[in-house]
Amino acid sequence: xxxxxxxxxxxxxxxxxxxxxxxxxxxxxxxxxxxxxxxxxxxxxxxxxxxxxxxxxxxxxxxxxxxxxxxxxxxxxxxxxxxxxxxxxxxxxxxxxxxxxxxxxxxxxxxxxxxxxxxxxxxxxxxxxxxxxxxxxxxxxxxxxxxxxxxxxxxxxxxxxxxxxxxxxxxxxxxxxxxxxxxxxxxxxxxxxxxxxxxxxxxxxxxxxxxxxxxxxxxxxxxxxxxxxxxxxxxxxxxxxxxxxxxxxxxxxxxxxxxxxxxxxxxxxxxxxxxxxxxxxxxxxxxxxx
Length: 290
Fold this sequence. Notes:
This protein is an alpha/beta fold. It has helices at 7-27, 43-59, 74-86, 105-111, 123-131, 140-151, 171-180, 195-199, 246-249, 263-284; strands spanning 3-4, 33-39, 62-68, 92-95, 160-164, 184-188, 204-207, 225-228, 232-234, 239-241, 255-256.
């Protein structure tokens, strides 16, 4: 039976770390503040916003909400974003994406100040990941994966890692982050032949396929650690599930993250800590490694 890499203890450890940082900042008269910039009232966005508000409250971070109508123009969004960019009381900005069709995603992301890009979506932040330098912040989900691995004392150096997925949100950043800690990484994608034969050789398997039950016993080995990033709706069971066929795989591997309760639980907490770290950078003028 695998060790379950529950996200809750990781969140508790992060909150403790965050509270210490916030206490020091408040002693200096600084209140870490996140700006949420949302267009429309999409159910998924509203639900995500509620979880962020809850986590910000737990972490001691204030929130400014900017809600534009669903028919907002690019000009309207640009104006609000630029105002948040130059507002020294705002330390982090989160853009709710995907945007409506009238909004240019690339243009908007590049308008965002990388110093306030707490979700790691700008080219500046991504360049910081791939060059292992101090620009911006890592995307929150890959950072959450690293927090889980570190918290549970899972060795990364000299380990073989397989990442399924090559998106700029998860796959490519986590591949780079694992390599920065001296893992040997193979990044698999839809055009990769023999994915299961590759993953069977991996000590660490990160799945970000977005396909329910796509990771079966054929992808695993007994000493493997599986990080399941997938969030899928299981129609048959009427609940959220990951990429991994959990009941089949869990008895066969060394450790595994659950869905829900794993990576997603930690991701929002990482976002909040990024806001705190951005406030520290602004207050001290010093940059910290991502």
